[in-house]
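Hi P.,

Sorry for the delay on this. The queue was packed all week, but I finally got your sequence through. Input first:
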Amino acid sequence: MAAGRARRLLGSLWIALLLGQPDPAGAAARSGSQSLLTGSLVRTFTPFYFLVEPTDVLSVRGASVIMNCSAYCETAPKIEWKKDGTFLNLVSDDRRQLLPDGSLLINSVVHSKHNKPDEGYYQCVATVESLGTIVSRTAKLTVAGLPRFSSQPEASSVPKGSSAILNCEVNADLAPFVRWEQDRQPVLLDERVYKLPSGALIVSNATDTDGGLYRCVIESGGTPKYSDEAELKVLPDPEEPQDLMFVRQPSSLTKLTGQSAVFPCVAVGFPVPYIRWTRNEEELITEGSGRYLLLAGGSLEISEVTEQDAGTYTCIADSGNDTIEAQAELTVQVPPEFLKRPANIYAHESMDIVFECEVTGKPTPTVKWVKNGDMVIPSDYFKIIKEHNLQVLGLVKSDEGFYQCIAENDVGNAQAGAQLIILDLAPATTGPLPSAPRDVVATLVSTRFIRLTWRTPVSDPQGDNLTYSIFYTKEGINRERVENTSRPGETQVMIQNLMPETVYVFRVVAQNKHGPGESSAPLKVATQPEVQLPGPAPNIRALATSPTSVTVTWETPLSGNGEIQNYKLYYMEKGQDTEQDVDVAGLSYTINGLKKYTEYSFRVVAYNKHGPGVSTQDVVVRTLSDVPSAPPQNLTLEVRNSKSIMLHWQPPPAGTHSGQITGYKIRYRKVSRKSDVTESIGGTQLYQLIEGLERGTEYSFRVAALTVNGTGPATDWVSAETFESDLDETRVPEVPSSLHVRPLVTSIVVSWTPPENQNIVVRGYAIGYGIGSPHAQTIKVDYKQRYYTIENLDPSSHYVITLKAFNNVGEGIPLYESAVTRPHSDTSEVDLFVINAPYTPVPDPSPMMPPVGVQASILSHDTIRITWADNSLPKNQKITDARYYTVRWKTNIPANTKYKTANATTLSYLVTGLKPNTLYEFSVMVTKGRRSSTWSMTAHGTTFELVPTSPPKDVTVVSKEGKPRTIIVNWQPPSEANGKITGYIIYYSTDVNAEIHDWVIEPVVGNRLTHQIQELTLDTPYYFKIQARNSKGMGPMSEAVQFRTPKASGSAGKGSRPVDIGPDYKPPLGGSNSPHGSPTSPLDSNMLLVIIVSVGVITIVIVVIVAVFCTRRTTSHQKKKRAACKSVNGSHKYKGNSKDVKPPDLWIHHERLELKPIDKSPDPNPIMTDTPIPRNSQDITPVDNSMDSNIHQRRNSYRGHESEDSMSTLAGRRGMRPKMMMPFDSQPPQPVISAHPIHSLDNPHHHFHSGSLASPTRSYLHHQLNPWPIGTSMSHSDRANSTESVRNTPSTDTMPASSSQTCADHQDLESTTGSYLANAQEEDSAQNLPTAHVRPSHPLKSFAVPAVPPAGSTYDPALPSTPLLTQQAPAHPVHSVKTASIGTLGRTRPPMPVVVPSAPDVQETTRMLEDSESNYEPDELTKEMAHLEGLMKDLNAITTA
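Then the structure:
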């Protein structure tokens, strides 16, 4: 029987197509496709609907009422009526009768206090035999009550032209039946006299004719009911103003869309008030508006209300003397409306269909479904899905009919219907049909799903073209459902959404192109019983009980068949990823130790003997606030003038606010009177100007943050002293104290010093220049500036330059200078003087000492504390003046030249907001007034690691060639690793939606980027995620990547791009054979090891050959250059015979002096940095890109010398750090030191830096950045110019300028090995970066820190300092000496005299340029080369010893 029914059911090709494409919404069987099923017995949909539906009616007792209803169908429908859900028997009813069109007539409505048979809800029901039934919307019949007055008119008087109101309040049902009489005559209503919807009467702009006796009448059928009479008197106009007041104010209304709304508003007073309205505080324009109408007395009527009309309405009465206003709310409700109506559906038995229904309304409507007039009760086969849609599962013939969606809310209801036709099927086409599928078995049985498998029918053993329909039902129920296989030839299916512990009956039918075949024998399978786990704990609440504790409470959940054993309370800080938990036995718990004023989320999971139940929803609560737990950061003081100081600070560190910062409390006092403290409380701004201070007085300040709970801890006291007097700006500045010019080919460098009288305000400097006249062009620069480069000039031209200081009063007295730019052919001077630094401030003639001992202490992953010492402060390091420090920092990345800066007035600064696991460099500068130091030595620090904040990238999965059950996962490290990656975790699963703890975990140790996974199932989709790990924890997971394993050996998987790895693919080393992926085998490891060793040996041999070749070539090249250099020295005549001047031979023996004590060099504090006196008082700016190409060209020509010379010494071979050594002339007149701080470190291994000291041909000191690794040796430019600085010290024999310069440009490293080697070991360069060029621990300490000036030198610290660039004759007998102190933190060293060479005048410069053009003779060159060869032999003897 069942098999025959299956053949009949599936007898057409169409049903094979239909069932092969499941359509949950039944879209394939909708209306509009009435001839869709050509292979079936087609029936068309029958139009059947209501033409008229009943509406709500208000009636009075004794009246007659008609409830309209009319339905359309080709066959005349039978009309019946329901009242309150029960059919009315109209045959024997003499008062109620059915009219021919289907309407209901009720004669003489009955209504009394205890008998209300006619009031209620009516519904029209239309039925067509053998077709179905439809029902109309429900309509309410309301019968007005007995006439009764709740308030009656009262006698009143009204001034002429004013408004009056006469009350007549009745219940809302009777209000439409109220009318008014004046002196027993009906009142005519117009725009001046108006009856409110409540029944009250408004008389506006009263005239004498309005006086009389008024009463209201209720005419609701039967005898009219009259109110009491009340007299209205009209008075003459008042002569005096009367107070403005409302006699009727608007009240809030609730209206339906389309209705009218009236807001009454009547005000009286003299002068007569004018009424206007606003909605939501916007003026309402009533004139000319179609829907807004101003009624008598100022009342507002809104016709045809829409949802947009809802809001707050304000009536404003304005008499000219006074204004009053009253407000009321308008709420608009919307009856249900259909956005989507159900559609007609064709279907077959056993199919699943969905009727869709989408409604809107206000309040939100509820939806119920009716089938053929009867309510659909939800069950296993009739389900409401997506709130409004009806799903019918496993259709049977009796499900045919009309289905209606009925939407209902407080203000109305509506219905919309559709027809369901279940088609019979035509017989199958001629041809063989499949036999019954064999061996139907349930291979997997769970609580809510079953997997069925079977074998192909005997009639079709291959079965590639067969599709299958699986029919199933609960045992004992005749409503079958059907599930279809997803593709031809598939012999298994998963049946889902079953009930636990229920017996189901399954049968399978195969079908081919001719139709469905025989059904298999029924198979009974019982689903598993469901474990009764606890439900979510109800009523979970979290309450903050203190700034650090929260109490969580809940109630006992439903637990099924297992008692609750305990609870687990999970909590997590908002914004964090890690959840913490605690076991709880009871129904409440208090968690302590939380962060203050921080949001936490809490949830509870109950446990019984079966395990954890359903989690509750998260509840979020914020801990209470408290006073801040840390002081504000980085308090700095800026003295503005003699009476005010500006304070700047930053908020306390994040996480220490403990609440909302409401302000800051500033306390300050005179340092001399510590007891007298003044308090000032400001807002949340991070600065405050303290005014009204005393002149020349030192004040101490401290700042504390405030919350609503009180004051947090304050900063340390920070002091500053107000100025003795304010600077004068009543007159122009005085003349600048000096002006120097330095001509180049197409530019002139201008430098100056400020006026000597620094009590007058200087706002800036004006530089004028031109050929022959200084008035051609003028440039203005900032008052801090001390030099400027005038660009784009003509070569060999005479320029006149003027400099004037200016302020707001005007420009001061000018200072003049002239200079001739150099000719194009002049190449003796490389134009490297100033590099892109037109705005770098230069210190005054007595520059500030840079801070020393800069240290970086790492505090966290984003915070580093910088500390330093200031040798210009007293020993106690107390700051007593208005100086401030500038801290700058940047990441140590070659491409990064961008610094961040901040100011501080203490000897430390907290740098926050840094990146995790990143190397930063820091340096500090001190500024006092207009004087600034150069930047200090750099300190370095690497922030701590943080968990990775991004997932691994580019995850790909490929199948291993020849091993279809093995796959290879490849990936790239996360872009934000935040530390060294120590491993990865690979998660994989066949269900992408499974909980993460259900995925298989495959750990990967180390930083490998590939992994094999073995023994996977063939032809199965897998999903992979990867998570990176560092020392701080796990990072986020990558997005899931899908990969389908191949069907059999040799076929590539789907879902990820296949990669041709080749049959000899060997995975990376490491790992062991495991069931889920071994990285490699022992044989592979040995093979790879042999390859690595072979490549390494070949590389070493090549390097040795290249090194030997370069060494020989370089040695000969050096000999030629050294000979040329010496020949230059001997071929010029300048102030005596220069042949007497021998090159310094002392450098040969410096290494011997150095070798013995070199291992004893103490380095007590590697973090501390020694800061020598700056060799140049100008700031250094990084080289711009335009210089890079030149620099790199020069680098290549010197690299060979650098590597050979620096490593050919014994110290170099041992990897020792050569200390600082200096070449000497025969009798140096004064001790000399030339050292400078490193201003920029761009990379741990390649630091671009060099400095050069000007020769007598130059009138300037300058620095030049140069790409040479400090970790190896000093740059060429440094070496050359260091030697030059010694030779240029004044002595009896001064070397010719061009000789010194040329040698400087061509000198090899050997000539200065001992002079200025950077004190950094190569092996240390990655960890402890070099921060100074001078270590005072050298045995030749007298070079660096002379205790007593040598005989013959003049050293007087009290002598006035000569400006850097003063023009003096080179042979000046006395040289100015600048003193400086070098030392590390906590140590003080004696002052060190520094010789500053004087600039020659213009005439000498010209003469020296002429001398440089003379030629040397060949015989002198030959002698010098021979001498040099002798020196080389001595050197070789030393190096080979």
